[in-house]
């Protein structure tokens, strides 16, 4: 089972790599982010220096990891990818820092989840490219400094507010990723369809894009589900009608809301009279984890105006009631 699981992970992993855009010009949308980074790349190259440390924040699936890999390609360096939960012990971060070469990019996902000890090792590493380690304990303890190559840290987080300020202050660039527009997602769907050798019409791609909650990762995932549906039904090309039909089957509604989104709204409307209601109460009534609701489901519901946040809690709006056919 383990072998099978790894093989499957490999397969999806490889496919994922094929789908990811490789160059800045292929990265669709996020105009502001791209222009800021374009300047940063040109300037760093002109000075023959490494890029400034960069913090990317925004909901999952918007292209943070992808952008980090693109930066490495554009700078002609390597990118090491890790996540804060894998860096629990100081030796984990020491190992990875010591393995870096001049100019390399170190991508740390979920950077708000670093332990304090690991985080404190990062401060001098980011600021002075130096690793401070303490050898021994108590009065005989000595601190040694190991020089590090000039690397670039790219941190990614869904909750920028949870970062400590000393960590945040050490990033030269702090950029937010936004939800994508439907026309941008349509381009992404068409591009992925090309990579996967799937035939999709303009309207078919647009229908998938419209239901992707502004998120490229979801757009790619829905495209794969629609492809399966078409293959089983022996349909050659994905048009609008088939996209609609398939996505109904997979429980994705015309606004792109899935079963959990609708459950969250339903609970707010039926059990809490539309709110205001606290996050924890919604979490326990839906059986979902509060953090998942806050980071995965809520941002899009806020974006499309189905939920408002007030000082007294969350409120389901009239638009949400209409969408779910409440009076
Ligand atoms: P994050 O790190 O923010 O969770 P990822 O970088 O892993 O998101 O992106 C998820 C998927 O969406 C990737 O496989 C990539 O193919 C696709 N993707 C993300 N952003 C873009 C974009 N701007 N253009 C095209 N595809 C994108």
From TrEMBL:
Transmembrane domains' residue ranges: none
**According to its UniProt record, what is one Pfam family this protein matches?**
WHD_RuvB
The protein's UniProt keywords, in alphabetical order, are:
ATP-binding, Cytoplasm, DNA damage, DNA recombination, DNA repair, DNA-binding, Helicase, Hydrolase, Nucleotide-binding
For binding DNA, which residues are annotated in this chain's numbering? 309, 314
Q: Where is the AAA+ ATPase domain?
A: 50-181
What are the record's GO terms for cellular component?
cytoplasm; Holliday junction resolvase complex
Instruction: Give yes or no: UniProt keyword DNA damage.
Output: yes
Where do the segments described as Small ATPAse domain (RuvB-S) lie? Answer: 181-251
Q: Which SMART domains has this protein been placed in?
A: AAA
- Where are the residues of the annotated region Large ATPase domain (RuvB-L)? 1-180
Q: Which InterPro entries match?
A: AAA+_ATPase, AAA_lid_4, DNA_helicase_Holl-junc_RuvB, P-loop_NTPase, RuvB-like_N, RuvB_wg_C, WH-like_DNA-bd_sf, WH_DNA-bd_sf
Specify which residues bind Mg(2+) according to the UniProt entry for this protein.
65
**Compartments reported by the entry:** Cytoplasm
The first-level EC class reads hydrolase
Q: Where is this region: Head domain (RuvB-H)?
A: 254-327
Q: Give the CDD domains listed for this entry.
A: AAA
**Can you state which reaction this protein catalyses?**
ATP + H2O = ADP + phosphate + H(+)
Question: Recorded E.C. number(s)?
Answer: 3.6.4.-
Residues engaged in binding ATP: 19-20, 61, 64-66, 127-129, 170, 180, 217
Per the record, the major location class is: cytoplasm
- What is said about its interaction partners and assembly? Homohexamer. Forms an RuvA(8)-RuvB(12)-Holliday junction (HJ) complex. HJ DNA is sandwiched between 2 RuvA tetramers; dsDNA enters through RuvA and exits via RuvB. An RuvB hexamer assembles on each DNA strand where it exits the tetramer. Each RuvB hexamer is contacted by two RuvA subunits (via domain III) on 2 adjacent RuvB subunits; this complex drives branch migration. In the full resolvosome a probable DNA-RuvA(4)-RuvB(12)-RuvC(2) complex forms which resolves the HJ.
> What is the UniProt domain comment for this protein?
Has 3 domains, the large (RuvB-L) and small ATPase (RuvB-S) domains and the C-terminal head (RuvB-H) domain. The head domain binds DNA, while the ATPase domains jointly bind ATP, ADP or are empty depending on the state of the subunit in the translocation cycle. During a single DNA translocation step the structure of each domain remains the same, but their relative positions change.
Physiological role: The RuvA-RuvB-RuvC complex processes Holliday junction (HJ) DNA during genetic recombination and DNA repair, while the RuvA-RuvB complex plays an important role in the rescue of blocked DNA replication forks via replication fork reversal (RFR). RuvA specifically binds to HJ cruciform DNA, conferring on it an open structure. The RuvB hexamer acts as an ATP-dependent pump, pulling dsDNA into and through the RuvAB complex. RuvB forms 2 homohexamers on either side of HJ DNA bound by 1 or 2 RuvA tetramers; 4 subunits per hexamer contact DNA at a time.
Q: Which family does it belong to?
A: Belongs to the RuvB family.
Name of the protein: Holliday junction branch migration complex subunit RuvB
Q: Which organism is it from?
A: Allocoleopsis franciscana PCC 7113
- Which gene is this protein's source? ruvB
